[in-house]
Amino acid sequence: MIKVNKKSQAGSGPVNSQITIQDIAERAKVSKSTVSRVINNTSLVHEDKRQAVLEAMQTLGFQPNVFAQGLASGQSMTIGIVTQNIGSPFYDTVAQGVITGLASTGYSPIFVDGQWQQSTEMAVINTLLGRKVDGLVLIGGKVPLHQLNELREQTPTIVVARELAGWENQCIFIDNVEAGYQATRHLIERGHRDIALIRGIKDHADAIHRFEGYCKALEEAGIEFDSDLVYQGDFSAQSGVLAVNSLLARSTHFSAIFAANDMVAFGARLALHRHGIRVPEDVSLIGFDDQAEAAFMTPPLTTMRQPAFEMGTAAAKALINLIKDKPLEIPNLPAKLQVRESVARLR
Amino acid sequence: MIKVNKKSQAGSGPVNSQITIQDIAERAKVSKSTVSRVINNTSLVHEDKRQAVLEAMQTLGFQPNVFAQGLASGQSMTIGIVTQNIGSPFYDTVAQGVITGLASTGYSPIFVDGQWQQSTEMAVINTLLGRKVDGLVLIGGKVPLHQLNELREQTPTIVVARELAGWENQCIFIDNVEAGYQATRHLIERGHRDIALIRGIKDHADAIHRFEGYCKALEEAGIEFDSDLVYQGDFSAQSGVLAVNSLLARSTHFSAIFAANDMVAFGARLALHRHGIRVPEDVSLIGFDDQAEAAFMTPPLTTMRQPAFEMGTAAAKALINLIKDKPLEIPNLPAKLQVRESVARLR
DNA sequence: GGTGATACTGAAACCGGTTTCATGACGTCA
DNA sequence: TGACGTCATGAAACCGGTTTCAGTATCACC
Predict the structure, then answer these.
(1) Does B274 score more than 50 pLDDT?
(2) Minimum-distance CB partner of A71 among B17, B71, B89
(3) What is the pLDDT of residue B14?
(4) For chain A, which end, N or C, has fewer CB atoms within 10 Å of the first or last residue's CB respectively?
(5) Contacting residues for A334 by C-beta, under 8 A, at least 6 apart
């Protein structure tokens, strides 16, 4: 390794990181041990020496070597975050929330991408474990439950946006059945009875749950389920376009569409436009997520808002508490209907 | 530190990370040194022993301790990425590109957020330096040139989406003057002469450059610059709304709008809709970035596509080469006009 | 003055790798 | 047979912290 010349620099420039605890010790005329004690406040140190050490650290611009620290203490002060690059803004926002929640806790995030593939996901988790992260945040994902159960005994783990049996305390998700129910309910309350559904990825739990909520609301209102009104999409805007085209080709009437998420809604909205169908005058449209662009669709999109950012910050806070063995509280974060202008009252 | 019981586990579950090089050495009946040599391939090892070591590693499920590795070798195998959480999808996409470009290089990314504030940014860079990252990718940012010059002598650094004098080799950006020129030119070619401009954040270099391109195209076409057609926005959708409201309140006529980015275009499009102004029949609209939602605006948005993802991957590749002292090539990545349906030919 | 508790400190071991250095075995050549 | 280069290997130093352990100094109390 080539060493950079030692030079003391003042000001706000990059800090010279070659200063070791030994240098501090010499300058302060104490031993390494004492310097360590001052830094970590692990035992009493005479005030004179403490000041000398502090002063030396100040003038020399000491930054501890994290490897040495990690090796000696077994702590890395980093948190591993596993995202699933589904391209959906929802997961990005959750991740943003985690970053924010971690800020000023002293822990740094490391991101890896599971790509919604079980094998990839397990591999990246192992990479993270190899890097000795102090905790894990899994956002979504497909690793089977029994492996996660094993995992959480090894490392503090919080799972976001996925429901796991037996993880009540370490699991942050919204009730997608309830949310799907609410969305459908909103349409029904506005007088709609022929409600089309554009589903998300086939075996995706969220998509399934929202579908269940849809069915529940229908049943409660005494509306018969019609499979002709359901289109199997994949959470992409393109699938929204295809859905509308397909739905219109079938000759089943519908006055409203419940889209799997906002991207799908955007696609559906465009397709409706192409067919000369007005929103909401001819067909109402409701989305899911409330991503930033939803409020600026024409017309602004009524959607179920997922508290993605808050879920992220909550996960971060919970994880820190878990690491420190403090009691953790998982806040109740329900999806909330965000009423805008894409749903009309049916007369 | 509490140690987890050593247990050898087969299969795809979490790997036991308590196995050390010493354990391998004992099982393979060789010394630590030899194990290290096999792992890093740093010198010749007799084939018999090599196999024994490999076999031991396999059955014991060895994963090296990164701290020990880092401490001893001075390498961390991590890359620090500084993003600016401007909320713009552009920066997120660049970051995604960097992640992807780093995949399978052995380097892991660590993200930090500079929040477009010089002090914050310098602080997070120092955190990264403290973590001994092997390289840095700065996406955007405001740290002054002289500090960056100092920085790059200390650590391999690549800057994305920001133009830096003297950094020709380590700097990936598009020519925003040219891009602004192209966008404006497109409108002019379609017959527009009264072209409104919604600017981005006031002192943001990209915004300034795009403005310059706008002026250049105007001048070239012999169109007089009219400050009444310029609105000072901030890259947000909301500023697009305000811009249109303000522009309409002034009694200056315009037939087209060049928006600072797609979010602004979305806002502008909604505001035009509110005023009963059709796009593109009454007013044409051109955006910048080509974020995912642009293709699904109604009508689909014509926009200058920034190769954000490609910039990210290029940055990753360049950085790896920089670290390994290999020649690095910065690809030429121009913005490209993405013609869709929001610009009409003026008759 | 002796005893014991308490405050404070430095030497040294340790964390788990990498790298240097010394050495032994072996083959080649004069 | 002796000198020398090459291959292969283990012992030990080292990276820069944390933590244990042994000890000294000081003070209170009997």
Answers:
(1) yes
(2) B71
(3) 46
(4) C
(5) A174, A175, A178, A179, A307
The string of DSSP codes covering A129-156 is: HHTT-SEEEEES----HHHHHHHHHHS-
Using the CA of B50, give the nucleotide whose C1' is nearest. Answer: D8
Residue A236: how many CA atoms within 13 Å on its side-chain side? 10
Output the pLDDT for position B324: 87
Q: What is the pLDDT of residues B288-299, one digit of tens each?
A: 999 999 999 999
**A336-338 and A302-305 as β-strands: parallel, antiparallel, unpaired?**
antiparallel
Confidence of residue A86 (pLDDT cuts 50, 70, 90): low
Question: Which residue among B67, B85, B127 sits closest to A67, beta carbon to beta carbon?
Answer: B67
Indicate yes or no: CB of B298 within 8 angstroms of CB of A273. yes
CA of A45 to C1' of C6 (A): 13
Q: Confidence band (pLDDT; 50, 70, 90) for A329? A: confident
CB B260 within 8 A of CB B288: yes
pLDDT at A17: 54
- C1’ D19 / CA A103, Å: 29
Contacting residues of B for A68, CB less than 8 Å apart:
67, 71
Gyration radius (Cα) of chain A, Å: 27
Q: Which of A61-65, A84-88, A206-210 has the highest mean pLDDT?
A: A206-210
Location of structure tokens 């490391």: A110
Contact B113, A96 (CB under 8 A): no
Mutate which: B96, B131, B150, vs A, most A CBs within 10 A: B131
d(CA A309, CA A307): 6
Which residues of A are less than 8 Å from B269 in CB distance?
A: 296, 298
Nucleotides of D under 7 A from a protein CB: 7-20
Q: In this complex, do A66 and B96 lie within 8 Å of one another by their Cβ atoms?
A: no
Q: Please, which pLDDT band fits residue A324 given cuts at 50, 70 and 90?
A: confident
Give buried/exposed letters for A143-168 (b at 16+ CB in 10 A, else e): beeebbeebbebbbbbbbbbbbeebe
Query: Cβ contact (<8 Å) for B63 and A297?
Result: no
**pLDDT band for position B4 (50/70/90)?**
very low
**pTM across the whole model:** 0.88
User: pLDDT tens, A51-82?
Assistant: 999 999 999 989 899 999 999 998 888 999 99
Q: What protein residues sit with their CB closer than 7 Å to strand D?
A: A 18-22, 32-33, 35-37, 39-40, 42, 62, 64-65, 67-69, 71-73; B 29-34, 37, 43-46, 48-49, 68, 71-72
Say which DSSP state B201 is in. Answer: S
Give me the pLDDT at residue A154, please.
Answer: 87
